[in-house]
Amino acid sequence: MTYGQNALSLGVDDAAPAAGAAEVEGSTWRWRVDPEALAAADREVDGRVALLNPYDSVLFDRPRLAEAFDFDYVLEQFKPRAQRRYGFFAHPVLMGDRFVGMVDAEVDRDNEVLRVNAVHEFVAFDAEETDMVRAEITDLAEWLGVRVSGLA
Prior knowledge:
Order of helices and strands: EEEEHEHEEEHE
Strand content: 25-35%
Strand order of the largest sheet: 5-6-7-8-9
Largest sheet: 5 strands, mixed
Low-confidence stretches: 1-16
Shape: globular
Number of strands: 9
């Protein structure tokens, strides 16, 4: 089986016994894919946006993340402020099968607000993509039980 470079895959060492071997176009790595997860991704990958928690397990294996998604992630909370590019606790934005940006947002519990400091777009979003990212931010705020501020 061959999949595009952004295929949702598990590394060989992490694979469940039922996972099948896969070749990822443009990669020299060995991969295994959970057939059920792959089928679900094929059905739902277009038009789906997720804000990932900076501690999400998909971000842990940085070499695999770079190989599969061409995404070099750095958690900036441990960097001095002057060296930060995206924010203290910026959330990667996954749109379909690609990382498209970072959302720098923080919860202010005292004022019951999710403060959006910046939405960093790796490539400019079109109107529909902007709406999808905004909707995801609004959903996050609702889940947290706060309102959104700073989202122009």
